[in-house]
Amino acid sequence: MEGLQLQSQTDKKGKLYVIGIGPGSVEQLTIASRDAILNSDYVIGNGTYLDQVKELLNDQEIIRSHMGKEVDRAKKAVELAEDNVVSMVSGGDANVYGMAGLVLEVAEHHELDVDIEVLPGVTAITAGASVLGAPIVNDFAVISLSDLLTPWERIEKRLRAASEADFIISLYNPKSRQRNSNFRRAIEIIQKTRDGSSPVGLVKNALRGDSQEMKVTTLGKVLDFDDWVDMRTMILITTPESRIWGKNGMEKIITPRGYQRKYDY
After folding, report:
1. What InterPro entries does the annotation carry (predicted)?
2. Would 166 be classed as within a structural domain?
3. Do both 210 and 250 map to the same domain?
4. Which stretch of DSSP H or E encloses residue 236?
5. Can you tell me whether residue 137 is helix, strand or coil?
6. How many CB atoms lie within 10 A of CB 145?
7. Number of H helices, E strands in the chain
8. Continuous segment of H or E residues that includes residue 142
């Protein structure tokens, strides 16, 4: 894309919001994000995410894109924001495997003095955790299993380190049609250093209404659900200190914070 030029402070009239739209329903948007979208001249995003906030799209100019066009999308958003109010929508939180970093890198690379504000959103780990109960009230690590931009060797290193350090581990992007073995490989790495009794929660389409599904199992049995896992699934692998409470499809995961060691309740 051509036309990106340095803008002086005196000429600056636009604004670029990079918005995490959360799990995918308008009800889960922050008020600030909702207001930014409603008051934008342009709204840009992956078509899937635009569809999730379509009830907020009225008089704005809509620019639809798709997977693999992230760089073009970021360039267009930055260019338009020199003279317009623009919302770039990103699934979950824009700082968690989202568009925030790329947008700022593009503005930096082209030395553009664009007013950019990143608005946070509910990301998959917190959405999924709310469905599962209280699995992440202690230290945790978030690891994407997508090796499209990160070498698998580096992902393996992070998996081993997080497992050995006893972090609760959230796995993002576990499987796709092209990457259907990374989830199994990741679980096998974690199983080498973590007890098989550790509770595991799997949530598909977290907080997306009737399409939401969840499973509660253990690390030793989680690969029984290998065929059920897809790109819409967030996995939470807890530690042996966590426990499963409930039964008959109403199971919750509780990870103690440590109060039990100091207080009698």
Report:
1. 4pyrrol_Mease, 4pyrrol_Methylase_sf, 4pyrrole_Mease_sub1, 4pyrrole_Mease_sub2, Cbl_synth_CobJ/CibH_dom, Precorrin_MeTrfase
2. yes
3. yes
4. strand 233-237
5. coil
6. 22
7. 7, 13
8. strand 140-144
Q: Is the per-residue pLDDT at 1 higher than 70? A: no
* Tens-digit pLDDT profile for residues 129-148: 999 999 999 999 999 999 99
- The pTM of the full predicted model, rounded to 2 decimals, is 0.88
Q: Note whether 84 and 106 are same-domain residues.
A: yes
Domain count along the chain: 2
DSSP 258: S
- 222 pLDDT band (50/70/90 cuts)? very high
> What is the arrangement of strands in the sheet containing 213-218, beginning at the earlier edge strand?
140-144, 168-172, 233-237, 199-204, 213-218
Please name the residues in contact with 138: beta carbons below 8 A apart, sequence gap of 6 or more: 168, 255, 256, 257, 258
Half-sphere exposure of 140 (CA within 13 A, CB side): 22
pLDDT digit string, tens, across residues 63-100: 999 888 999 999 999 999 999 999 999 999 999 999 99
Determine the Cα–Cα distance for residues 186 and 141; give it in Å rounded to an integer: 14
CA-based nearest residue to 58, from 35, 32, 29, 38: 38
Q: Decide: residue 130, CB within 10 A, 0-12 exposed, 13-18 middle, 19+ buried.
A: middle
Task: Say how many CA atoms lie within 13 Å of 114 toward its Cβ.
Answer: 34
* Nearest-angstrom CA–CA distance, 116 and 200: 38
Residue 84, judged by CB atoms within 10 A of its CB (0-12, 13-18, 19+), counts as middle
* Same domain membership, residue 145 and residue 54: no
Q: Residue 59 maps to which CATH number?
A: 3.40.1010.10
List, in sequence order, every residue forming a beta bridge with 18; answer none if it has no partner. Answer: 88, 118
User: Beta partners for 244?
Assistant: 253
